[in-house]
Amino acid sequence: MTAAARVVDAAKVYGSGETEVRALDGVSVDFPAAGFTAIMGPSGSGKSTLMHCAAGLDTLTSGSARIGDVELSGLTDKQLTVLRRERIGFVFQSFNLVPTLTVRENITLPRDLSGRPADPEWIDALVDVVGLRDRLHHRPSELSGGQQQRVAVARALAGRPDVVFADEPTGNLDSRSGAEVLGLLGRAVHEMGRTAVMVTHDPVAAAHADEVLFLADGRLVDRMPEPTAERVLDRMKAFDGRAPGARRTPQEVGP
Ligand SMILES: Nc1ncnc2c1ncn2[C@@H]1O[C@H](COP(=O)(O)OP(=O)(O)OP(=O)(O)O)[C@@H](O)[C@H]1O
């Protein structure tokens, strides 16, 4: 198996002394090329930290993070910026489209900014895959949330990245639009050979992945190949007896 991204013995410590938080505590994991991996775990278990460090948006306190063969800890900020632009695609919960640009301009913007314009044939194919051909000249405000997130997925894929990192990509969508966006990520992986890594609280979303990783207290505690929503839900219930995504009540949090 080739890893598109990998962390080895990854640790991330925030603060020091009494306020020290070990957000990651010795995590080692490969994200296989042409695979779709979901990261789950209770709130505060380190999911976002793992994704951000694996994607070069944040740095590890110790351990190694690689995209392909490139060790991220050895890179300058400028080199990291270039690597993210050239080799990584991002999808966020809140779409992050540029409101003044059309759908087509949003999709090609990162490529245009990089000075290496997107391959028109690839963009053409993507537009069909995400089903936005009749919306190409619309602005984001003229689209539904699900359509906007499909634009964000197309933008993430426009530069043929090694890995697409998606942080709660369906968090703001109804279940039908969410299923469309997840279907797209799945097609990007299984039909277009891309690699996707997704943080989610939703067992139904996680079931679209090839494998689910479970974090708890900054550690990798379990993994589930070929997940189903039911099995993921059961596994999540085993954490602390809480349903996934459950928020602590004010009484539980304390003063
Ligand atoms: N910038 C920061 N400074 C201090 N502590 C932080 C910072 N970012 C995250 N943490 C802490 O690190 C731990 C892991 O946070 P992280 O956001 O990775 O968890 P998560 O699993 O993504 O949570 P959620 O599901 O609630 O989004 C938490 O205890 C969090 O409070």
Automatic annotation (TrEMBL):
Pfam families tied to this protein: ABC_tran
Gene Ontology terms: cellular component: membrane protein complex; plasma membrane
InterPro entries xrefs: AAA+_ATPase, ABC_transporter-like_ATP-bd, ABC_transporter-like_CS, ABC_transpr_LolD-like, MacB-like_ATP-bd, P-loop_NTPase
MF GO annotations: ATP binding; ATP hydrolysis activity; transmembrane transporter activity
Keywords: ATP-binding, Nucleotide-binding, Transport
PROSITE patterns: ABC_TRANSPORTER_1 (PS00211), ABC_TRANSPORTER_2 (PS50893)
Domain ABC transporter as annotated: residue spans: 5-242
Protein name: ABC transporter ATP-binding protein
Organism of derivation: Wenjunlia tyrosinilytica
